[in-house]
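For reproducibility, we list the full input for the heme C complex.
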Amino acid sequence: MKALLNWLDHRTGYKLLVHEALNEPIPGGARWRYITGSMLTFTFIVQIITGFALWTAYSPSTQTAWESVYYIQHQMSYGWLVRGIHHFAAQAMMILLGLHFLQIVWDGAYRAPREVNFWLGLVLMQIVIGLSLTGYLLPWDQKGYYATKVATNIAGSTPFIGQQVQQIAQGGSAYGHHTLTRFFALHAGLLPALLTVFLALHVYVFRRHGITVPHSAQGKPADTFWPKQVLYDAAGCLVTLALVLYFTLTRSAELSAPADAGEDFPARPEWYFLFLFRFLEFPAISKMGVAFGAIYVPTALMIIVVLMPLIGKSQWGHYFNRLFLVAVLAAVAVLTGMTIIEDNHNESHQAKLAFAERDAHRIVVLAARDGIPQNGARELLVNDPLTQGPRLFARHCSSCHRFDGHDGTLQKIMKTVEENGVKKLIPEPATAADLKDFGNREWITRVLTDYDATFKPLENAGEKGQAILTGEMSSWCKDNQKALTDPANAESLKALVEFLTSQGGRSDLGAFDEKLVADGKEIFKGGTLKSGTLSSSCVDCHAMKVAGERTSLSEGAGAGYPTLTGYAGRDWLKAFLRNPAHPDFYGDKNTMMVFDDKRLSEKELDLLVNWMTGDYYLPPNAHHTK
Ligand code: HEC
Ligand code: HEC
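The corresponding predicted structure, in tokenized form, follows.
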């Protein structure tokens, strides 16, 4: 072994190099505060290694990027681990960059003769920021897509050359496929190459001048790099790696739904850019235009940073630099905190996030069942009732109905009112029933035992709506409320409900109790309860052809008595939506909109109705939650 190493040394002279590297003197002794540089280099190496591993499976195109990241995250062996490390090490790098910068400025390490190296460091900082910006887009998920869109629009606001800059960044006049390929070329090619070159220069120049000894260490005995500082550095790197692993194992890197230009997303940049996002939101700043807040101000601050070595020539200048840096960091911290707190208190934003999270979760379920379709994963969501139903509901129904109090997509429906000259947001009252439970056992129980409460919002639906609230079903309910809520009749009510729910043929309501269904049918027809009878039975008014039977139980009382044949099932609901004013439904009493195929295509109708009737794929053991 020794002979071999000697042979190698003779040919390469590596021993001298190692000797020089390890015996580099550290005046004032080894210190913890010098470790950030090594930690940065270490995380960069981690990024190169994990980056290459990710590259073996990543495929940059709008049709395949998300799909390949999905593969890495959910199918490739240890893909989630590699991706998680890459994801969290990138964040660690941003923090380390801040710490490194703080240490350099605080200790005055930018002073002559180290100015050039300080500037090299600033270049490195820009490259790292570039790497994180470009990396954010690569999964081509909603989150990265929308955040990066904001960033490229900001680039477009650059004075004079904005449009050209934006076109270069985007790879053309449109934000899309070529943005992705370009960002990938930057992220995996140009930027790491530049980073390597500048890092080499940075370390080389650093070695030329050595460490800047802070005041507190002056006069203390010198160390050599080996062993003490090497130990400190190694400990720092290990802690970084441990933290990165901790985050990877506990929260794993996020992957939101595949990017969709037509689908709104509550975009926020990565947390380390939140301050800029918040800064641009100030009315005073946004009034000045995006370029002012996003380009002029940061450039002005950057110019001061670049000039730090010159400003810091005098002791007062150095104090100014320290103060300046601390002030900027404090402002960044405050703005970041403000964004987080405000977002947490913003109900609408939280609802959007929660809804987006549903998509992210849902597509994984669908992809696990179906695999990825030829035309990309987005198709899975486009054809999924559980994904599209709420959206269609929000678009077409939520102006009158609510769904569990919201618009289907978890958004509350609000309106602005003026009170003593102050504008306030208050919930907009519904004008039709809340349809979350439509057609299930609770719904039917409620309709029969408390019609008025179930349809209370109709009181806001004008004269015709109010007429329904004082109509025949309402008075029938009042007449029979006592009998139906009598504990002695609990079983009868249950039977009636079971019978009616069983007619829709819905699969989301669980198994039906055959005996109850049979009993319910008799009550429906004859009106005889365990204790007493109904004032009139259902068949006196409602048409009903029992599922699977040839003859009708009743033909109904005529127009405006909603048919209960197949009530709340797929066919009933489709026919109802296509024409609620049909004599089989509400007839002249109807105030609901008619959804012909111009309003709602056949496919949309299917998606909506399948969602409302619970007809969509659920993984084994999952429960229906709409
Ligand atoms: C313009 C307001 C309005 C819109 C929009 C509207 N509805 Fe209605 N809806 C009503 C009213 C009012 C009723 C009560 C019966 C009637 O007037 O026909 C009703 C009744 C219903 C019913 C029967 C149960 C009940 O509450 O009586 C269902 C189911 C229903 N709507 C579903 C929908 C769906 C699904 C959409 C969207 C595709 C929708 N509605 C859009 C106003 C509306
Ligand atoms: C006196 C006639 C009458 C009787 C009896 C009657 N209903 Fe009704 N029912 C109506 C009318 C009319 C409506 C439509 C609302 C209105 O105009 O009052 C209605 C509405 C309903 C609805 C709501 C449909 C929707 O919009 O989703 C259900 C469910 C229902 N009835 C079930 C029953 C059941 C079950 C019985 C027997 C236990 C029954 N009804 C007895 C007249 C009657």
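The pocket of heme C (ligand 2) is lined by residues 444, 447-448, 468, 471-474, 476, 496, 500, 536, 538, 540-542, 560-562, 564, 589 (CB under 6 Å). The chain has a mean pLDDT of 94. Both points were considered when choosing residues for closer inspection.
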